[in-house]
Amino acid sequence: MESSLSGGGGGETKSIEKAGWWRRFWAYALDWLILGLVEASLSWIVFPLIGDTVGTVLVLAITALYFVWPYSRGGQTLGKKVLGIRVVAIDGSPLNWRRGILRTVGYVPSMSVVGYLWSIWDRDKQAWHDKLAGTTVVREWEQGVAIASPEEAWRRQKRWLLGLGLPSLVVAVGGAAFFWSLIQGGIAEVNNMGPWPGPEVPSERAVAVDLTHLGLSTGGIVSARSVDYWRDGGYEDGTMASYHSGGEQVVVVMALKYASKENAARDFRDLRASVEAAGCRLYTSFNVGSTGLVRCQTADADNKVYWKDEWIIVIGAAEGTELPPEMLLNRVRDGVTAHWAALARP
């Protein structure tokens, strides 16, 4: 698209060809395809050597640098280079780190979709991330582009920073704090169920818990393979114990021991998906790659599933005691924790 705008050197008017929306879209899609391939390669090759936590930090750093660096220098990511477009400052000044960081962070509010589509009808063809950074996108042969004076460019940018950037920052920080509290709550519950059984403990011993203080008697201990959902699980050793009250089964405790964290992570993700589909009320989990950055918990009204390293522990409770299922779940969890502590004593 062409428009008659002021050139960068003075008041001379010239025709500047802006980048169309579809060209920008395909450049952006290509960038994320490249980053996806890099992340997949790191997950398969590097993560096993440096660990999930360091690997995740590395991926985030590479992703940020992939956009910030070109938006601070020449204005072209690999995707934009292939599509023949580049980012420029609307006042004709050289790009810098401040613009690069603002434009990259500006992708967050633009993910509302409206932010990306904004460039279709905007007079300067700016998406929201362009507005926040004071940039626009032109065909790569354009030089000395300036569509506003420095004073006018800053006036426009400041308006968007205050009107969109600041509220987006507040929402992002608040949302991150909320989800982090959920994640930390789940981590704390999983870690407080310690000490978790070691690899030498058979799953049958892990679930053979004395729950008589809750008025529950042992109903039976069977292989986890006898349970339809877990029949084809990737574990190497699994046992389910049932506990009764008044002749009715009201609690089940299942222990699944895996040969690797990767196998446990896969089954945990599958179970988590089924819990979410059923209307998960509480969900605290943070997975990265195939193994997970932290060990997690997921739960609904009458089931809790804990995952840590090579173990998955499932606790289910139903009506049938003086305690509601939710409270019964926590009491059983405490009983399991005490049982594991006894196993760990010499």
Q: Could you explain the architecture of this structure?
A:
- This protein has 346 residues and is an alpha+beta fold.
- The chain folds into two domains: 2-156, no CATH class; 203-344, Protein Transport Mog1p, Chain A, CATH 3.40.1000.
- The chain is built from eleven helices and eleven strands.
- The protein has helices spanning 21-50, 52-72, 78-83, 97-105, 107-110, 114-121, 128-133, 150-192, 203-207, 261-277, 325-344; strands at residues 2-6, 13-17, 85-89, 135-139, 217-223, 237-245, 248-257, 282-284, 297-299, 303-308, 311-317.
- Strands 5-6-7-11-10-9-8 form a seven-stranded antiparallel β-sheet, sandwiched between helices. The protein has a two-stranded antiparallel ribbon with strand order 1-2. Strands 3-4 form a two-stranded antiparallel ribbon.
- The radius of gyration is 28 Å and the shape is elongated.
- The model is unreliable at 1-14 and 277-294 (pLDDT under 50).
